[in-house]
Amino acid sequence: MKKPIKKPVKKEIKPKKVNKPVKTETKKESAGAEKSKRTFNLLRGMHDILPKEERYWKAMFHASENLASYFQFGRIETPVLEEASLFVRAVGKGTDVVDKEMYLFEDRDGSKVCMRPENTAAIVRAYIMYGMWNAPQPVKLWYWGSMFRHDRPQAGRYRQFTQVGYETLGSHDPAADAELILVAYNFYQELGLPVTIHINSLGTPEERVRYKSELVNYYRSKRSYLCEDCKQRLVKNPLRLLDCKAEQCQGVKDEAPQIIDWLGTESKSHLTKVLEYLDAVEVPYQLTHTLVRGLDYYTHTVFEIYPDTPDAGGGAQSALGGGGRYDLLVEEMGGRPTPACGFALGLERSFHVLKQYLEQNGKDIPKERPDVFFAQLGEEARKVTLKLINDLRKSGLKIGFNFFKNSLKTQLELADGFKVPYVLIIGQKEVQDNTVIIRDMESGIQEIVDQKKLETMLKKKLGKV
Ligand code: HAM
């Protein structure tokens, strides 16, 4: 027997009360609703680089690339992920980078891997792996890429950041140190940011051992004046005592023994020669006896780059970049004895300081401008315009356009904003005649040209023949 079809009962639809959770909703359903609404944020210490910042990043990349090419550094790209022990060995236990900041994890096969916190160790790995000592020495390499440190995020400190670095492997010569410092200095000169190089020498490991014991004796006698961090450093990493920024330690630091007095003749002479080169190329520097760097591999020259602008922001109290000699590292990592030196610049810090400095001085990095602007009227015209723009791609001309605006007035306003000398216009008639209107933006005079002759005509008008 057929069941009688029940007539649907019309219910009155009452407006739902807002903000009161419906009691009958299951956990699963509410999780689903949350999923569709949830927006995401960045992880702590991470950042995006947005299109409006691109011109600064482009300028920094161009400066790096041009300098690398002029000073003959070959580009090397190493992976982001490396064996963890590579950095532990090279950078050293007891450093903040290794003890506190490495992005360390077990890979699926159980091996310990690490997101590179810096790149010198990887460059040394590559130098040894590919037998680069067989090539004419020195081998000069440069790189650009992301580094990862689980640092405490603050101004100018990120957990993922970008470095550009230059390394010279296979030369003892102080000229190699000076050349690198000159490249670092030129980088900021190219961008228009005044900087000063802070420089020091850490001598040989033997000289450093003698100096360290003197430093520890001195600091022990002042222990009661020290901050808690320095009390730790005294035991763990005495050279870092000289890095302390705490107000209460400054007096003790000022009176501390200076490493330069513990250097032997050879180390002193190396430093003097580097300084003589810097004088010759007119790079401004400051001898800073408290400069020790935070990584273990350095010997002899160490240096850092600081903006000359005290209020530059973006972590201006921190160095924009730093480096030095690491004459023993290649051998320690299993290679032949190979003197080496290098540096890396932090590009987020450089970006912030540069942007702020330019803004404070009413300057800017010029935005890229098109040579001409292409305006179109109607769908058919848009098709032809797209084809012509694509054809002009190889001409070397920069074409501005916006397909999503239909009115000529809006498109001319856009063109005006770019300050282009000519606007190209295609409407229904031009589509039929295979022509383009070239409008002189200054005089307003319009000219009709054959689409086939457009490239030649434009180049002639823009003086690009
Ligand atoms: P570093 O001093 O550790 O040296 O780093 C160089 C630069 O990277 C710093 O001066 C800073 O601008 C930037 N930097 C470091 N940590 C951060 C961070 N958490 N956030 C943003 N920027 C940061 C090295 O890495 C050595 N590998 C340099 C070198 C090359 N020495 C010899 N060859």
TrEMBL record:
UniProt biased composition (Basic residues): 1-20
Biased composition (Basic and acidic residues): 22-36
Binding site for L-histidine: E118, N119, T120, R149, Q163, E167, R293, Y297, Y298
EC supergroup of this enzyme: ligase
GO molecular function: ATP binding; histidine-tRNA ligase activity
Key words of the record: Aminoacyl-tRNA synthetase, ATP-binding, Cytoplasm, Ligase, Nucleotide-binding, Protein biosynthesis
Reactions mediated catalytically: tRNA(His) + L-histidine + ATP = L-histidyl-tRNA(His) + AMP + diphosphate + H(+)
Domain Aminoacyl-transfer RNA synthetases class-II family profile positions: 54-370
SUPFAM superfamilies registered for this protein in UniProt: Class II aaRS ABD-related, Class II aaRS and biotin synthetases
Gene3D superfamilies according to UniProt: Anticodon-binding domain (3.40.50.800), Bira Bifunctional Protein, Domain 2 (3.30.930.10)
Claim: Protein biosynthesis is one of the keywords in the record: yes
Enzyme Commission number(s): 6.1.1.21
Protein name: Histidine--tRNA ligase
The organism of origin for this protein: Candidatus Magasanikbacteria bacterium GW2011_GWA2_37_8
